[in-house]
Specification:
- With about 250 residues, the protein is an alpha+beta fold.
- The chain is about 20% helix and about 35% strand.
- It has three helices and 16 strands.
- It has a seven-stranded antiparallel beta sheet. The chain has a four-stranded antiparallel beta sheet with strand order 9-8-7-13, with no helix packed on it.
- Helix 1 runs antiparallel to helix 2 (about 40-60).
- The longest helix has 30 residues, at about 1-30.
- The chain is elongated, with a radius of gyration of 23 Å.
- The two termini are about 25 Å apart.
């Protein structure tokens, strides 16, 4: 959000300089044969470029970098991803109010949103609960509206946590709505059972790394107003080129 605000300020400043110069100052300068001041020259050069980038990032697609392992094994720390900005409706930049309604998050989507306790931070999780859903998590098993989700063991999964400790987890294939995706369960981690009903215009979000994710179980629901977009593509990873081009499910 802060970068979008920065771009909007730069766009406004360069645009106003270009407009004011075109309307009031350029004719006088041309009449006496003076060249454009450097600040006018730069503003005229950068304004159209910044405008195009701002429109693309605001309404079509925006890049993000994954900072943590809370969405492992679907997303790894260091993945650079693309987020579809029009899938959940076109929104006013910065204010984030929807002005064209397109569609709403579906169960199983991987989505980016403004973190409810601090909207200046962007989070990425998976949509688990839709408005009106009753969510419960018992013995590391997810239930939606009383129905236990199907999970099947895939293999053992090892990774190094942020504290450089080895974590030995198990990978399962989970069916969530129309989406089949992998999750990680660490049998040695203690997680408190949870029950909640999703309020109107809100979503329940969880990380795929179920025992290493601070999500709706800890800080509450994601309001519709906080939505940013749906993650769909990994376009870069400096540590693992094989991940480049992966479609996010």
């Amino acid at each position: 959000m802060m970068f979008a605000l920065f771009m909007l300020v730069v766009l406004a400043v360069t645009g106003l300089i270009w407009l004011a110069d075109s309307l009031f100052f350029r004719k006088k300068r041309v009449a006496v044969g003076k060249a454009d001041p450097i600040w006018v020259e730069y503003s005229k050069s950068f304004f159209p470029v910044i405008l195009v980038v701002f429109l693309i990032r605001s309404f079509i697609v925006e890049p993000f970098k994954i900072p943590s392992g809370s969405m492992m094994p679907t997303l790894l720390a260091g993945d650079f991803i693309l987020v579809n900005k029009f899938n959940y409706g076109l929104r006013v930049p910065i204010l984030n109010n929807t002005f064209i309604d397109v569609s709403h998050p579906k169960r199983g989507d991987v989505f980016v949103f403004h973190y409810p306790p601090d909207p200046s931070i962007d989070y990425i999780k998976r949509v688990v609960g839709l408005p009106g859903d009753k969510i419960s998590y018992h013995d590391k098993q997810l239930y939606i509206n009383g129905q236990k989700l199907d999970v099947n063991y895939v293999d053992d999964y090892e990774y190094t946590s942020a504290g450089l400790n080895m974590v030995y987890a198990k990978r399962y294939l989970e069916q969530l709505g129309d989406v089949k995706h992998n999750i990680l369960i660490d049998d040695n981690s203690i997680i408190t059972d949870f029950e909640a009903e999703v309020p109107p215009n809100s979503y329940f979000a969880m990380g795929d790394n179920r025992d290493n994710s601070k999500d709706s179980r800890y800080w509450g629901f994601v309001p519709e107003h906080n939505l940013v977009g749906r993650a769909f593509f990994i376009w870069w990873n400096f540590d693992s080129f094989s991940r480049v081009g992966t479609v996010i499910h």
